[in-house]
Each structure stands twice: as C-alpha cells, then as structure tokens.
Amino acid sequence: MTKTHDCLRFVHIDTDMTSFSIAHIVNVMSDGSVISTCHLEGVLQGSGSSVFRGDQPEAQTGQCTVHASANGTPTGESWTLDLNATKYRTDSLGTYRKQGSPQDGLVYALACSTR
Q1: How far apart are the first and last CA of the chain?
Q2: Which residues in the chain show pLDDT less than 70?
Q3: What's the confidence (pLDDT) of residue 13?
Q4: Any idea what DSSP says for residue 58?
Q5: Are 22 and 112 in contact (CB under 8 A)?
C-alpha cells in the first residue's frame, strides 16, 4: 500500500433531528489498484466497498456507494462517494440520492487526511 485517504463528515439535519456520519476510506496500492470502503453510522447505517484495477477510471476517485438503512429497514437513500485529490488538497464528495426527494443530487464534502 502506498497511500491511504481517510475522509469523514458528520451530518445533522435540524428539521427531523437526524444525525449520522459518512466515512470514505481509499487505499491506493503500489500497482495503482484501489480498495475503497464507505460507511454510514448513527441514525442511518450502511456500508459499501469497491476494488478497482489501476487502469479503471473509478480507481482515480476510489468510487464507493453506500445504501442507507434505519434499524435494519432500507430507506431508499444512497451516497456515491468520489475522492477529489488535487496537488493542493484532498476531499471526498458524496452525492446523495433518493428518488422524489428535494435533496436528491445534493453533494456533501468530506474532509480527508492522507497517510
């Protein structure tokens, strides 16, 4: 492994008192391949993972999708997370999806640290 990006965002929605965290961890291997995991914890739960060869476009962003549940029941919500690494900073952008929701397409920025 050559690099790991740890990204996190805490979300609190006042209208319905919802609180949860979104985590996106991207491990870049020496051959360019990527192992990506993503998690929701709190009122919403879920996890996802992806593995990409270095020549796949998704390896550049460590793309990962997580589907939400609350108390074990699917909510119809999901986030697709993409690492946004530039020369000057790294963050992860999480795009929210829920059909029919006014928030569908909302993008959350996750702060990242790299080791």
Answers
A1: 10
A2: 14-17
A3: 72
A4: G
A5: no
